TrEMBL record:
This is PIG-L family deacetylase. The lineage of its organism: Bacteria, Pseudomonadati, Pseudomonadota, Gammaproteobacteria, Lysobacterales. PANTHER family: BLR3841 PROTEIN, N-ACETYLGLUCOSAMINYL-PHOSPHATIDYLINOSITOL DE-N-ACETYLASE-RELATED. InterPro entries: GlcNAc_PI_deacetylase-related (IPR003737), LmbE-like_dom_sf (IPR024078). It holds the Pfam family PIG-L. Gene3D superfamilies: LmbE-like.
């Protein structure tokens, strides 16, 4: 699937909106207006919160006046952030029963995707089957936060398990276009005020990054339709990394059918395309399965965001 131009989805009293939020605040920053509009016409909303946002050490150190954060401290912080999410949704008009937290590890959604038992797509499939949404707002594949890109892939896997095709909307919070003016949905004064009031529930996030979060909340909400890619789509990778980086690179590939593999770049099943680029020479790609590829550095780094991230090929 690929992102197409943003188009307002048709929202009626029969709409069942599922918002997939990797962390507390994603549901408000990127979907606060959409949530209000679905509720205003009598539709149903559920928020699937993948993590509690417990791996958020610098605001925690600042607010709790402590340097060391152990397992108990992280759990306490995650509980606090999850409670903030419940309060933010309450301010948007969402009942407490509509929040479904999975409590996966923060900065661990990619690890859930890589687990060989494939339990994460199965867990998401249960949620999808239970709520039966006809509209899903989910992170865009190109979002540079590793939890967000992996969340996109996992939702697509879960949908493929079910053979289920609701309308899919991608939202971008961290990425090349996250600060650029974009066409999108602009709320009424009352809707925008409610969204900003909901954001105010996130004292943990506003303590150190208040201006940035308020700026994000004031942007028009852009939900790009995720449309199917032709089966004849090029299997070429979008990256041409320098040979100097090859020893440090890792290629991860996942399919909607649930197959996930990871290789050092030099061991990956690649071939030259004759134009200086690379193509994936892998049975799943050759069988025209939907594939998601991620290029990353296999080195520890304090920088959490992806440089290359995911692409659908």
């Amino acid at each position: 699937m690929a992102l197409s131009a943003p188009t307002p989805p048709s929202i009626t009293a029969q709409t069942r909106l599922l918002v997939v939020a990797p962390h507390p605040d994603d549901e408000t920053l990127a979907n606060g207006l959409l949530i209000q509009r679905v509720l205003a016409v009598g539709g149903a909303v559920r928020v699937l919160l993948l993590t509690d946002g417990d791996n958020n050490p610098w605001p925690q150190r600042w607010l709790e006046r402590r340097w060391f954060i152990g397992a108990a401290g992280r759990a306490r912080w995650g509980s606090r952030r999850r409670a903030e999410c419940g309060e933010a949704l309450y301010r948007l008009g969402v009942p407490p029963s509509a929040l479904q937290p999975l409590s996966w590890p923060d900065m661990g959604v990619l690890d859930r995707l890589l687990q060989p038992d494939r339990q994460a797509p199965a867990e998401l499939a249960v949620t999808l089957a239970d709520f039966a949404p006809d509209l899903i707002a989910m992170p865009a594949l190109t979002d540079r936060h590793p939890d967000h890109g992996a969340a996109h892939v996992l939702v697509r896997m879960a949908l493929a398990r079910l053979g289920y095709t609701p309308t899919l909307l991608g939202y971008l919070i961290h990425g090349p276009g996250d600060a650029a003016p974009e066409p999108g949905s602009i709320g009424t004064a009352a809707e925008q005020a409610a969204k900003e009031e909901a954001l105010a529930a996130y004292g943990t996030q506003l303590a150190l990054s208040g201006e940035r979060f308020r700026r994000l909340a004031r942007r028009p909400e852009r939900h790009a339709s995720i449309a199917s890619v032709s089966s004849a789509a090029d299997r070429g990778l979008p990256w041409r990394p320098s040979p100097l980086l090859w020893p440090c690179l890792r290629l991860t590939v996942a399919t909607t059918s649930g197959e996930v593999r990871q290789w050092p770049w030099r061991d990956a099943p690649l071939r030259r395309d004759g134009h200086g680029g690379w193509q994936l020479d892998w049975p799943a790609a050759q069988a025209n399965e939907v594939c998601f590829a991620r290029l990353s550095l296999a080195l520890p780094s304090p920088w959490i965001f992806d440089h290359w991230g995911w692409r659908e090929i």
